[in-house]
Amino acid sequence: MKKLLLLPLLLCYSYFALPHGYIEYPASRAYLCKLQSNQNCGAVQYEPQSVEGLKGFPLKGPADGKIASANIASFSPLDAQQPFRWTRMLIETSTFDFFWRLTAIHRTTKWEYFITRKDWDPSKSLTRAQFELTPFCKFEKVEMPPSLVMHTCHLPKDYQG
């Protein structure tokens, strides 16, 4: 059976067009802080739902080097980047579901999921150059979502392991 190592940033970077919430599965970097699987996270361990950046990535949004924290100072520990700093989630197949827990529901316009490039350097700060700038999964729908949301996505073939 093939396994996929879901790159750490895939989990925390898909938040750029959502109501306040976090990805429970595969667990986001911020949610893993809440679960204490990730250590020394700062304030985000108490409010992973508050890591929300501006809409419009990659043209807008947080500055390079501040992407994981959404440029929120109290969440700056999320921007620390070292090869083994963050817990990684194993994905068994190339098709999988994202499960979101929304804590402050409001109308959404779209959900986009970005992934780091295959040649990204996990020892360097996260910048737009580290990402595929086209979402690998996208849902466009203006709606008031429920408190639990599921999106089925497919990783690009070249990300199968």
UniProtKB/TrEMBL annotation:
UniProt entry tagged with the keyword Repeat: no
Keywords of the record: Signal
Domain Chitin-binding type-4: 20-161
Keyword Signal: yes
Protein name per its UniProtKB record: Chitin binding domain protein
Originating species: Providencia alcalifaciens 205/92
